[in-house]
Fold this protein.
Amino acid sequence: MYLTHIAAALANSSVRTLSQQEELPLLRDHLLRLDRNSRRDRFHGFMDDSFIERYAEKCANDGTTIVAFFENGVVRGAAELHPPDQSPDSLAEIAFSVEASVRRRGVGSILFRKLIAEARAKGYKSLRITTGSQNEAMRALANKFGAKLVFQHGESTGTIDLTTQEYAQPAPTWADITLNAARTAVNINRAYWRTWLRMYGWRRAA
Ligand SMILES: CC(C)(COP(=O)(O)OP(=O)(O)OC[C@H]1O[C@@H](n2cnc3c(N)ncnc32)[C@H](O)[C@@H]1OP(=O)(O)O)[C@@H](O)C(=O)NCCC(=O)NCCS
């Protein structure tokens, strides 16, 4: 019963890239839902709504790629890939945000992997990530994907080399596997009930 419940919930999840202009409100609303601590961690101290609204609008217009995690049609997590031309040393920058309600379920890892695929498709050779030195969660996530973070000026900064094979294909996470298994389970369930209902002549209800 419990597993069926989880399977049904995960089957309502998906990950995809947002279209830049049209889907700006989805990114903005996700960022506005972040609680105070998450906003501090994500924006290095900038926390008010007007800042977030301006930030989301900038992302929609400056070539930033947004990979989003949807649950029941609502964006609950986002990974940002900022083009290299926006940084002084021409390195693409990445950033992550996952709402507290879906954390520690592998969502950040799914987004990270998808973002790397996007970056590689664009031909980027390396990515930079910057986070607060106290941000254990982001440090753990970045380490998992091969970023070597160094502490400087109150922040931890790391680069990820996309050209190394060792790093190129991190193993799928538990959440990836569960997400696929959940979809399969739901499809099998549907097929079972369709067959059963047909046998008893309730075709329309299927
Ligand atoms: C950082 C963040 C994106 C992680 O998202 P998430 O969906 O919880 O990440 P995952 O579930 O994929 O976890 C990734 C790894 O980090 C570890 N981790 C997650 N949260 C952790 C925490 N609070 N402390 C220690 N490790 C943590 C997990 O155990 C996991 O490692 P594992 O796969 O080896 O078990 C999320 O906490 C967040 O949005 N924080 C607020 C915004 C922020 O800090 N952004 C970073 C600025 S760029």
